[in-house]
Design goal:
This protein is mostly helical. It has one domain. It is 81% helix and 0% strand. It has 17 helices and no strands. The N terminus is likely disordered.
């Protein structure tokens, strides 16, 4: 902590809410766009690998559940610690905010090391459990053997970057991702094609990029202009604080953890019902997940950008501004996802061909893509409600709706639909849009019926106090 006054650009109670959110969201979206390039560019290059494009793509697709699992543990601490940090900062609780950033860092590093060791010990049985065949295992193993080494660095760069943004430095946060991702884009073709390392080369480029990103974060949070810095003396965790962080972060953990569960179910079911084309359909799912990642970037950017702004204003008692921020995030997200839905309906072959030069995969993926993205706009309602609950520290609601969409809707439907109405593999792709409609509406409507009226009451009470004073 370097000052006792908060500069205007770091005070989210000043200026219009939509401007404050965009000021956070635009750099975050740019950063996340480049961050997606870490994995998406790998898939694009590997999808055009001569002689083995479909198998390589399917092999990398088998790593999705493991990446989701790492993300889940990162979210457990980062999406719990960051909103609490924002609320504490808005309420002027500087000592508490200082403790939150340091304890979160400690938890991320320790967990990253444990996951790395566990991954190396059990990678073979895990990959076969996640849907690998004898044909795709060599590709998955070559990628994972290198990728695991970057786990602690990935958790530092991703998990701690939120604390940079929450302090009002979104451009610095943007640079965290851009530095590493640009390196990944540059190094991928060198390692994959020039040096002939194939799938393993893609993983080497990714890990090297993650190391650079984490070093940038550590530099800013120790030597840069951060309002709150990392200090080893303040990293000793206390049980109440860890419980508070993980309770709020549990919703983010469940969202990513259930993604892992669903991907395992998808891969296994596609292999079972796809017959001789099972590995090919896993490749199709890999492409669809990649397209969805790209399309969701502005929506997640808005959600993540709104959280520190909404949390700060909530902590400061500015309830009218909180409602304004929720409305802006919801309307913007719904408009964008509608445009994405139209693009999928109009240009499915073009989107698929970006990721694979295999004409068989492209043709098999057209119908799957149109089913998978049906009603895509409802996904934005899930994110609007979820980000609001997290921003306001409402952990129970966030956890429930995380479980509802993935664990209670997508997972069972992925297993059941392929056996119903002759859907076969297309039942796997149908589970996602059904969950978007049911889960997205349930989350958003509940938020509007509970959080929204409470904010209105808080606004009236604040106005009444001002009149009395």
């Amino acid at each position: 902590m370097s000052t006792t006054t908060v500069p205007s650009q770091n005070d989210f109670c000043q200026g219009e809410m939509w401007k404050n959110i965009l000021r956070q969201a635009i750099p975050l979206t740019v950063a996340q766009t480049v961050h997606v390039l870490y994995n998406v560019v790998d898939r694009i290059y590997l999808g055009h690998l001569p002689g083995a494009s479909s198998l390589a793509l399917s092999g990398v697709g088998l790593i999705f559940p493991i990446v989701a699992l790492v993300t889940a543990f990162c979210n457990l601490f980062a999406t719990g610690g960051t909103p609490l940090f924002s609320i504490a900062r808005g309420a002027g609780q500087r000592e508490r905010a200082d403790k939150l950033i340091n304890v979160t860092f400690f938890l991320l590093v320790c967990t990253g090391l444990v996951l790395t060791v566990a991954g190396y010990l059990w990678k073979r049985p895990i990959l076969y459990l996640f849907g690998a065949s004898d044909e795709t295992y060599p590709y998955a193993d070559a990628y994972l053997s290198v990728y695991l080494a970057g786990t602690p660095f990935a958790m530092i760069s991703t998990g701690m970057n939120g604390f940079i943004n929450a302090q009002g430095f979104p451009r610095i946060g943007m640079m965290t991702i851009i530095l590493g991702a640009l390196l990944n884009v540059i190094l991928d073709p060198i390692f994959i094609f020039t040096l002939g390392l194939g799938v393993q080369g893609a993983a080497i480029a990714t890990v090297f990029s993650q190391i650079v990103s984490s070093l940038w974060v550590l530099w800013f949070l120790t030597k840069g202009k951060a309002l709150f810095r990392l200090d080893p003396a303040k990293m000793r965790p206390t049980l109440p604080l860890v419980r508070e962080i993980t309770t709020l972060g549990l919703s983010g953990f469940i969202m990513a953890g259930t993604n892992c569960l669903v991907q395992v179910a998808c891969n296994a079911t596609l292999r079972l019902h796809g017959g001789a084309m099972g590995d090919l359909y896993i490749g199709v799912m890999t492409v669809l997940n990649s397209v969805r990642e790209i399309f969701m970037l502005p929506v997640t950017g808005l959600g993540n950008g709104s959280q520190p702004v909404i949390g700060y204003n909530y902590g400061a008692g500015e309830y009218r501004r909180v409602r304004s921020g929720i409305a802006f995030t919801t309307i913007s997200g719904a408009a964008f996802t509608t445009v994405c839905w139209v693009l999928v309906l109009a240009f499915p072959r073009f989107l698929l061909s970006l990721f694979s030069s295999d004409p068989v995969l492209v043709e098999a993926g057209v119908r799957a893509m149109q089913i998978y993205f049906f009603g895509f706009l409802f996904m934005s309602f899930q994110f609007a409600g979820q980000s609001t609950y997290v921003a306001l520290g409402k952990s129970r609601h966030a956890i429930f709706f995380s479980l509802l969409r993935k664990a209670f809707i997508v997972f069972p439907l992925t297993l059941l639909l392929p056996r119903m109405f002759g859907l076969g593999v297309y039942g796997v792709f149908l589970a996602e849009p059904i969950s978007n409609v049911i889960g997205g509406l349930a989350c958003f409507v509940t938020m509007m019926l509970t959080i929204w009226p409470a904010l209105k009451r808080g606004e009236r009470e604040s106005a009444g106090k001002e009149v009395k004073e």
